[in-house]
């Protein structure tokens, strides 16, 4: 057994800026080739140490894994999507890690869509056709992910983007949808931004050497990639490109965006050789998203003044002549819009929850004016998550995804004319799951500056005492305006059914409470994110949801930065912490523009080449603030091929903690040597990671039962 933790050697690397000297003893752990024998050997030693210390709980971990996997209906199909004369869907098979992409003909393609439509599957039904089986493709790879799967407008071809390393650099293949035969040479070294422009052309985006999406290309099938037309090159390294298709299927939109500015071009798919034309110009601080219906572009527009966005429309031929459709509201944020021929669906946020509001539109060709009298879709849970889904533009049927912390992922079709909604699919949860056993709540914690921070809480009503003795897992993210809405995660039942309370802290830096929630948790206000999280932890202790001795915390990526920061600030407050692929070497990374994401992230964290930002970022950067003090039990994970958070950041954090911390608590580092930012790619492999994390948490809490030969 490897019981002695690996101690990384120290090689002083001195960095000086603004008269401030920092010494990084573990800078040598960064190897961009990911092939240094010394670095790989150290990572392998850390993995061996982790495996050794967790070997006593391996039996329990396997039991939890079997339990999590046992809840899954392994052979299943997704809710079919109607496109042209076909239903498209994905199928999972018993024991298989990946999906099959399938389709079958509609029995009556001329019938108008209805919320009551179901895909026939019996012996007399049109036959299922498997377009692509990811299980076959993944056989020769440790990692396999399809980032885009796009069917041509005439339904004859499929273009898909494939990543076999986890580094998010894709190869695009074009195949015949019926025979699976290759019909074009692969497009190499591209992103997963991919759209058809008619039946014979593809538009795609490539990245520069720092993995910034910077060029949009038009590819004509049957020609060499080297002769593709560059539609746009974004030279400003704080901007990245995005590619979307309109719901009407008439236009593609290429956008260039930074963290606070976004402008758009359109491409007419009937004449792609005409190239891009401007819809919204580049204006610093103005952020626009564009869609299309009839003879108008619809533009969601955000600025410093209209921070929660307004909605305007303009004629296709005169993009400067805008009509206000929905005004800006201080308490309601326009998150997204979805257009139909006769309806507009607005995804909004109010009081920390998503809403879906539907407006009727005048006939195409009639003038557009301010929208009135929208109706809102009602949801059953007090806290929930709702997301848009592909719907048919020419129908009146809205499809959306719904879930809550106790309602499994559900797909609904909603008739916007009648208000009738039909559940098309709800994820099957095996193993005796009963939603009525669980309670979900929304509570509010007081931040140090008086701001009320929303918390989403779930627990099993018969298994908690709510007297401070219950174990609790608190999750947080709090960056990039991301909304971590309360949704269902079946693997969490393995904690809830053991008496855990699970809580999401909707801290500033996220977008749950609108744009200003984000603005007040970034740049020189970033520390609000951390103090909000600490305030949430203290609220849960004060209100008898748990005690310090039972409080565990979890965060990934930018949420891993959160975990690293609060561990340095208040290590006494937590019993155990999980930091997944954590962004912990903030200052050093943000000073290095050769690292992927750095340049585009200066508007999120600040540019430390400026003195004010340098010292502010240094004051919270986890690697720079590890000190001689007691820390709780900690598990840190990384992915060797991760392009978003270099594996060396968590590696350095762990090495420095090992050197300085003054306790004997667990400190484990697990680096996946064949994966990237999103860990392993198979659906069961991902569950194994959940089981490992839960086993670590239960070990830290001394809750592992005696399984025969096991140690407690």
Can you walk me through this structure?
Belongs to the peptidase S9A family. It comes from Fagus sylvatica (Beechnut). Strand 36, helix 7 (about 560-570) and strand 37 form a beta-alpha-beta unit. This protein is about 15% helix and about 30% strand. The protein contains twelve helices and 39 strands. The radius of gyration is 26 Å and the shape is globular. The chain has three domains: about 15-70 and about 435-700, Alpha/Beta hydrolase fold, catalytic domain (Rossmann fold, 3-Layer(aba) Sandwich), CATH 3.40.50; about 75-130; about 140-285, Methylamine Dehydrogenase, Chain H (7 Propeller), CATH 2.130.10. The mean pLDDT is about 95. The strands form nine sheets. It has an eight-stranded mixed β-sheet with strand order 32-33-35-34-36-37-38-39, with helices on both faces. Strands 3, 4, 5, 6 and 7 form a five-stranded antiparallel β-sheet that branches. Strands 8-9-10-11 form a four-stranded antiparallel β-sheet, with no helix packed on it. It is of the alpha+beta class and about 700 residues long.
């Amino acid at each position: 057994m490897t019981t002695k933790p690996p101690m990384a050697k120290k090689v002083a690397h001195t960095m000086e800026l603004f008269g401030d000297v920092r010494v990084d003893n573990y800078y040598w752990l960064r190897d961009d080739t990911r092939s240094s024998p010394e670095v790989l050997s150290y990572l392998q030693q850390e993995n061996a140490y982790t495996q050794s210390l967790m070997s006593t709980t391996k039996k329990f971990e396997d039991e939890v894994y079997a339990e999590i996997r046992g809840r899954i209906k392994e052979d299943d199909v997704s809710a079919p999507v109607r496109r042209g004369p076909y239903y498209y869907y994905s199928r999972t098979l018993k024991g298989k890690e990946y999906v099959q992409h399938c389709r079958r003909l509609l029995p009556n393609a001329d019938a108008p869509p209805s919320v009551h439509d179901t895909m026939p599957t019996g012996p007399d039904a049109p036959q299922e056709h498997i377009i692509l089986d990811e299980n076959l493709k993944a056989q020769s790879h440790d990692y396999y992910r399809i980032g885009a799967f796009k069917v041509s407008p005439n339904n004859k071809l499929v273009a898909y983007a494939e990543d076999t390393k986890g580094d998010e650099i894709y190869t695009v293949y074009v195949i015949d949808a019926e025979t699976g035969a290759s019909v074009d040479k692969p497009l190499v070294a591209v992103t997963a931004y991919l759209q058809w422009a008619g039946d014979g052309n593809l538009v795609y985006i490539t990245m520069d050497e720092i993995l910034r999406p910077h060029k949009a290309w038009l590819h004509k099938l049957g020609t060499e990639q080297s002769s593709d037309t560059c539609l746009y090159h974004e030279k400003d390294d704080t901007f990245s490109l995005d590619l979307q298709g309109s719901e009407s299927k008439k236009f593609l939109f290429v956008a260039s965006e930074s963290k606070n500015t976004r402008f758009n071009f359109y491409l007419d798919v009937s004449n792609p050789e005409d190239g891009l034309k401007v819809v919204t110009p580049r204006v610093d601080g103005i952020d626009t998203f564009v869609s299309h219906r009839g003879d108008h572009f619809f533009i969601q527009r955000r600025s410093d003044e209209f921070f929660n966005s307004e909605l305007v429309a303009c004629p296709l031929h005169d993009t400067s002549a805008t009509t206000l459709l929905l005004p800006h509201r201080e308490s309601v944020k326009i998150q997204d819009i979805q257009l139909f021929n006769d309806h507009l669906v607005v995804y909004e946020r109010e009081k920390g929850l998503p809403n879906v509001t539907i407006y009727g539109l005048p006939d195409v060709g009639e003038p557009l004016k301010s929208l009135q009298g929208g109706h809102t879709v009602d949801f059953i849970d007090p806290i929930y998550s709702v997301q848009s889904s592909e719907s048919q533009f020419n129908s009146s049927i809205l499809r959306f995804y719904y879930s809550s912390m106790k309602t499994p992922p559900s797909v609904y079709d909603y008739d916007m004319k009648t208000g009738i909604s039909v559940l098309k699919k709800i994820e099957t949860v095996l193993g005796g799951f009963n939603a009525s056993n669980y309670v979900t709540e929304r509570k509010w914690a007081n931040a140090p500056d008086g701001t009320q921070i929303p918390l989403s809480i779930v627990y099993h009503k018969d298994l908690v005492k709510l007297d401070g003795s219950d174990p609790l897992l608190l999750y947080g993210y709090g960056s990039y305006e991301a909304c971590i809405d309360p949704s269902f995660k079946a693997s969490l039942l393995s904690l809830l059914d053991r008496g855990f309370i699970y809580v999401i802290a909707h801290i500033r830096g996220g977008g749950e409470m609108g744009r200003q929630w984000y603005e007040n948790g970034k740049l020189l206000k970033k520390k609000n994110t951390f103090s909000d999280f600490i305030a949430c932890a203290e609220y849960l202790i004060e209100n008898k949801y748990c005690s310090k001795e039972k409080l565990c915390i979890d965060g990934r990526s930018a949420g891993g930065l959160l975990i690293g920061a609060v561990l340095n600030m208040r290590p006494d407050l937590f019993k155990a912490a999980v930091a997944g692929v954590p962004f912990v070497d903030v200052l050093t990374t943000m000073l290095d523009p050769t690292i992927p994401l750095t340049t585009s992230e200066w508007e999120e964290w600040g540019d430390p080449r400026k003195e004010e930002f340098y010292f502010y970022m240094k004051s919270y950067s986890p690697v720079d603030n590890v000190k001689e003090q007691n820390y709780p039990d900690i598990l840190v994970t990384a992915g060797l091929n991760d392009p978003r958070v270099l594996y060396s950041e968590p590696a350095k954090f762990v090495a420095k903690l090992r050197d300085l911390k003054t306790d004997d608590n667990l400190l484990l580092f697990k680096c996946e040597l064949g994966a990237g930012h999103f860990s392993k790619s198979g659906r069961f492999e991902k569950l194994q990671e959940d089981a490992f994390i839960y086993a670590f948490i239960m070990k830290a809490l001394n809750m592992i039962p005696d399984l025969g030969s096991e140690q407690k």
